[in-house]
Design goal:
Length: 421
């Protein structure tokens, strides 16, 4: 996709993003694609249908990215966020994933699901998204009257020193074979992992019989892949010299005729795909700046697109329903969950879509760590909630947590505090 000016190229990228997001929102609503629901089905009922749909989406995105990268059709090495950064912030990935997993369980859904629910008429999710937006915004922008962000105040001083310098890149291909042979190695690793996931997913006859799970996983994976392809292939041609959106914006003073239309930040012009926590903060910044076009990004368009797609499907299927909080406890759970998702999603550098699908498609080690943290945080929270419900609040939080860890074989059986239920 070659254009002769920046405005046309950026417009194509933004509207292409919006179209993909509309598809994502509509299909996620139609198929009930929900990562928190997938973990809940697995932990509480032993049903792996939606979990397999999630893994299917990961396999589709991963296989597509490694194949297209090998063919030179996508460039995920200099992405936004920088999944393959040489500095592995494993502690941030892990803690952020745990916080996000806990938060999405309390708030009844991840970032993407909250947007889908807004489109379906759930006004509880409006509060969730608004709170996430505020937290995510101040995780990367200075607090009022300060030069400190929430990240620097709460996490930077004690977590960043734990980072490990892995050199050029943290992707599995580079770590195993070095930079010179990374491309071919990523293709092999991605093909093996992707194929293994496909075998695992389709080994279940129950999964194979559920068309919505197959459709949801396939479309979500393809949409993530489509965004990588779109953002990697928008090019501006100036007298035979090709520029990406980011490289053009970085040389704006030399290439552009005037300051008009210059983006406020060049980082969101990098190759990228869907993630939903930091973009909520970007959307708040876009609104705070009076909806100036220079603050319009891939992330902002993706949020609007998912909500619209879900809304259109809700109308077409007559499933649009207004929902509100059932009680003050319900409100409090969603509020706390939103705060934890805002903190954890930025700290982990992504969510159940942004890290578990988009991030893992790059084979970045940090993405796999964040993915594991999200699943563990959510599963433990569900187990604790279940034990507290069964024991009607008589069991302490510590007892329920230790018992949940024993259930997941993370602690010895001898430490069990409560009878298994």
């Amino acid at each position: 996709m070659v254009f002769d000016n920046f405005a046309a190229a950026q417009s194509a990228m933004l509207w292409g993003t919006f179209a993909l997001a509309v598809v994502l929102g509509a299909v996620a609503n139609k198929t009930n694609f929900c990562t928190m629901g997938a973990i809940s089905d697995w932990v509480n009922m032993g049903d792996t249908g939606r979990l397999r749909a999630w893994l299917f989406a990961i396999a589709v995105a991963m296989l597509g990215v490694v194949a297209l990268e090998y063919l030179g059709k996508v460039d995920v090495g200099d992405s936004y966020p920088p999944y393959r950064a040489g500095q592995l912030v494993w502690a941030e990935n892990l803690l952020g994933g745990l916080l996000f997993g806990i938060g999405m369980t309390l708030a009844s859904g991840c970032g993407n699901k909250s947007l889908v629910r807004i489109g379906g008429g759930n006004f509880k999710s409006v509060l969730v998204v608004a709170v996430i937006a505020v937290i995510a915004y101040f995780m990367v922008n200075p607090l009022p009257g300060s030069d400190q962000t929430l990240f620097t105040v709460l996490f930077y001083g004690w977590m960043r020193p734990l980072a490990i310098d892995l050199g050029a890149s943290q992707d599995l291909g580079t770590l195993i074979a070095g930079s010179d042979n990374a491309l071919a190695t990523r293709l092999v690793i991605g093909a093996v992992l992707g194929a293994a996931l496909l075998v695992l997913v389709f080994a279940s006859s129950d999964f194979r019989s559920r068309s919505d799970n197959i459709l949801g996983g396939l479309v979500v994976g393809l949409v993530v892949l489509g965004a990588w392809y779109l953002t990697s292939n928008v090019v501006i041609d100036l007298d035979g010299e090709p520029y990406t959106l980011k490289s053009y914006a970085q040389q704006w003073d030399f290439l552009a005729d005037s300051p008009e239309g210059q983006p406020a930040d060049t980082r969101p012009l990098s190759a990228q795909s869907f993630t939903f926590i930091n973009p909520m903060g970007q959307t708040l910044g876009y609104a705070a700046q009076g909806f100036q076009p220079t603050f319009l990004t891939f992330g902002v368009m993706s949020l609007f697109g998912v909500v619209l797609g879900s809304f259109l499907w809700a109308l077409a299927s007559r499933r649009f329903r207004f929902e509100w909080f059932a009680s003050f406890r319900d409100f409090l759970n969603h509020l706390v969950g939103a705060v934890l998702m805002g903190l954890g999603g930025v700290l982990a550098m992504g969510c159940t879509i942004g890290q578990a699908i988009t991030g893992t498609s790059t084979l970045a080690v940090g993405s796999f760590i964040a993915f594991g943290g999200i699943v563990l945080g959510s599963a433990l929270t569900m187990k604790v909630q279940y034990y507290r419900m069964v024991y009607e609040g008589e069991a302490s939080f510590l007892a329920t947590l230790i018992t949940a860890l024993v259930d997941f074989r993370l602690l010895p059986k001898g430490l069990r505090r409560l009878e298994a239920v």
